[in-house]
Amino acid sequence: MAWVSGVLVLGVATGLLLVLSLRHQPQAVLDKAAGGVSEAAASRMVTKAAAVYEGLSREGPWEAVIGDHEINAWLALDLPRNHAGLLPAWVQSPSVRILPKRIAVGAWLGYGLFAAYGWVDLQVELHGVNQIWIRPLDARLGLVPVPKAAVLRRLAGGIEALGLITSLRRLDDSMLLVVSIPSSGQSGGAEPLLESLRLDDGEMFAAGTTRRRDDGTPTLSGSRRDGVGITTPD
After folding, report:
1. In which domain, by residue range, is 69 found?
2. Is residue 5 part of a domain?
3. How far apart are CA 194 and CA 190, in angstroms?
4. Exposed, middle or buried, 62 (CB in 10 Å: 0-12/13-18/19+)?
5. CA distance 98 to 224
6. Residue 55 located in a structural domain
7. Structural element, H or E, at residue 206
8. Is there a domain that residue 1 lies in?
9. Model confidence, pTM
10. How many Cα atoms within 13 Å fall on the side-chain side of residue 41?
11. Residue 1 in contact with residue 77, Cβ under 8 Å?
C-alpha cells in the first residue's frame, strides 16, 4: 500500500502549495508608503476628501495631493470604525500603493486559512479632460491569475456607485475601463473638470476647475444607470 501513502503525501503537498500560492502577497502592495498607519494620517484623508468634494461643487479651481499612507490609514482605521458596511465582511485589510502612473490594490478575501490575497495592478492615466483610462496590468489571487475583464467589471460597478460614468473598451487586444465625470444636466449646475492627474511614488496629484453650466453646453456621453457599455476607442 506504499502507493496509497504516496498519493496522500502528494495530495497534502499539492494542497499546501495551493494554499501558499493563494496567500502570496506581491511586493508592489507590501511596499506601502513610509509613515505607517496613524490617526493623524486618517484624519488628513477625511479632511482632504471633504475639501475635494467642496471644490467640485464650488465654481473655481481646485486641487488635491493625497498620499497612499493617508489612504491606507483611512482604510485601516476609519473605514472599519465608521463605514464598515462599505465592504463585504469577507474583504479584509485592504491596502493601496501608488506608483508612477499605477495603483496597486490588495486585500484578503475570505476567512482564516481559507482566505486568499487578491490584488490588482492598474495603470491609471488621464486622457483628455474628465476622462480617466484604467488598464489592468496584472490581477491575481496570490499567484493565480484571474480574468482582467471580470476585475474591470467589478471595479466599474463600484465606481458607478459613486455617481461616475464608466465604459469598457477594447484596445490592442486588451480591455480598459474609461471613467468620466458627469456634469449637471441643469443650466447653472456645477460642471467639474478634471484637467490634471499625476501618480508618483506614494502620492497622487489631481487638479481642475469647476464651472457653471450654461444652456447649450454639451454634457458627457454615457449613462450611470444603463450598466457598463463596451465600445471601441475612436
Report:
1. 24-231
2. no
3. 13
4. buried
5. 27
6. yes
7. strand 203-212
8. no
9. 0.78
10. 18
11. no
